[in-house]
Amino acid sequence: xxxxxxxxxxxxxxxxxxxxxxxxxxFSFSTYTMNWVRQAPGKGLEWVASISSATSYIYYAxxxxxxxxxxxxxxxxxxxxxxxxxxxxxxxxxxxxxxxxYSSYIDYWGQGTLVTVSS
Amino acid sequence: xxxxxxxxxxxxxxxxxxxxxxxxxxxxxxxxxxVSWYQQHPGKAPKLxxxxxxxxxxxxxxxxxxxxxxxxxxxxxxxxxxxxxxDYFCSSYTSNSSVYVFGTGTKVTVL
Lengths: 119, 111
Prior knowledge:
Chain A is an all-beta fold. Helix content of chain A is 0%, strand content 50%.
């Protein structure tokens, strides 16, 4: 069974930093492209970043480019999102999610972790 | 990239069929067969219901079906049941600056 468990988020002041992690199990993590998707309270889903299996390809949404960094450790089956220069509009539940093999859609999602940016 | 427009809400009585639209462009919905649909109950993570326009993952009821015509994708729920009451989001691979674009979301209410 695929399991994706995000680390606890939290409250961060504007301009601050936070690192999210996602522990993966139940599948061959090292062979899958991984994504972060976020959802502001009461709003829709927004794709944030994507990293290929061997980190050859990394992409970011324009809204986070230059501030967020996605990374992974295939030996530890872990995905990360380093978030710097946080803004109020980054307040959201952040989901770790897998990309389907040999296709282009997101299939499995973690339970999500809430990040609140406020003074 | 702006979210793909979906109707804000759709409602139906138990047993009826409803259809949710998802309007894209030739850079996303119309250009690729990578349209997916997600169901989200309050406080829960999204769940994949349809992938690659019209395929159902194992375990998803055959009451859910997907289609695409031109730049618009659609999700149909037939034989509406109380448990179908949730938010539904479409998504597509896109050739624009982002990798994936999501729809604005549709709240389905079972009357």
